[in-house]
Amino acid sequence: MNGCLESSVLHQHDNDEMIAGMLCLHGPNQSKTASKKWFPMIRKAKPRFLTALPVYNEVTHLGEVLDLVKQHADDILVVDDGSSDGSTEELKNRDDISLLCHETNQGYGAALRSAFCYARRHNYEVVVTIDCDGQHEPQRIRQLAEMLQQGSEVDIVSGSRYLDGDLDQTGEAPVDRRHINKTITRELNEQLGLSITDAFCGFKAYRVSALKPLRLAEDGYAMPLELWAQAARHKLSIQEVAVPLIYLDEERSFGGELDDAARRLAHYRKTIQQAIDRLDKHQNLPEPDPCSKLMAQTESVIPASS
To answer: Rounded to 5 degrees, what are φ and ψ at 225?
Structure first.
């Protein structure tokens, strides 16, 4: 028997799951319209997602990166973490982003926490985080977000620059950074039972509901390590996706003593151990929700123009 499948979309909203299809079966003695049956077809819904960029003194790359992000994302939040190089003024002049400003520099981790809380408050299903230094490719944003569509059991999609050696590479990771990443990634896997290949890539997608039990407190660049510890403890499902290795600024500063590789490695190890100890100490005790204060008050956010 020959078979044909035609489909007719009965809705207009991209997030609707159900569409109707018309199944047309015809054999040698049947007309092409003799046996038509309507049946439901289920399409996985695309998640409503927010793309969030933490920014601190990124005026060099800011405009170009945001223009590219806008081509691949509808809802964009920039968390300006107390910039002093003109980034804040440039951001305030844009009408295609929502802007949340920290009055003073609080740190990379603090900026990400603000983005997570904003996503929860505004009922997004997924939040994609991407750095604003030109080292991530915005055209991959929807790919990461849609890996968390309805029906998926994944909670965190994490970019990895070391998962696929065949991807294009721009620049070289400084030797000390590659060594530290490799070392910390291995130790995280050993201590937490993970199987990741890149502990520090900031290009990620998170299921917002999965972030709710996390109690993140680390303000600086080590926050992702605290997040891995809590994700493992809460048995969140993690999937890596290969992204290109792009290094445009090999001299980028981590700030103060963390520019020294040995001290940075020691700090990261201390952060991991403190995160594990904190989880062991408070595993049976409720901790305050870090988003509760923000979600109970009016945000200091400049919204995107509708």
So the answer is: -70, -40
CB-based burial label for 25 (10 Å; 0-12, 13-18, 19+): middle
Q: Say what the pLDDT of residue 283 is.
A: 66
pLDDT band of residue 20 (cuts 50, 70, 90) is: very low
Go through the domains of the chain in sequence order and give each one's CATH number: 2-42 (no CATH), 49-249+258-293 (3.90.550.10)
Q: What mean pLDDT is predicted for residues 86-106?
A: 95
3-state SS of 193-211 is CCCCCCCCCCCEEEEHHHH
In degrees rounded to 5, what are phi and psi of residue 142? -65, -35
- Kindly tell me if the per-residue pLDDT of 13 is higher than 60: no
Give the pair of three-digit tokens for residue 249: 């600024």
pTM reported for the whole predicted model? 0.80
DSSP string for residues in the chain: -EEEEEEE-----TT--EEEEEEEEE-TTS-TTSSEEEEEEE-PPPP-EEEEEEESS-TTTHHHHHHHHHTT-SSEEEEEES--SSHHHHHHT-SSSEEEEESS---HHHHHHHHHHHHHHTT-SEEEE--SSS-S-GGGHHHHHHTTSTT---SEEEEETTS-TTS-EES---HHHHHHHHHHHHHHHHHH----S-S----EEEEHHHHTT------STTHHHHHHHHHHHTT--EEEEE--EE-S-TT----GGGGSHHHHHHHHHHHHHHHHHHHHHSTTS----TTHHHHHS---EEPPP-
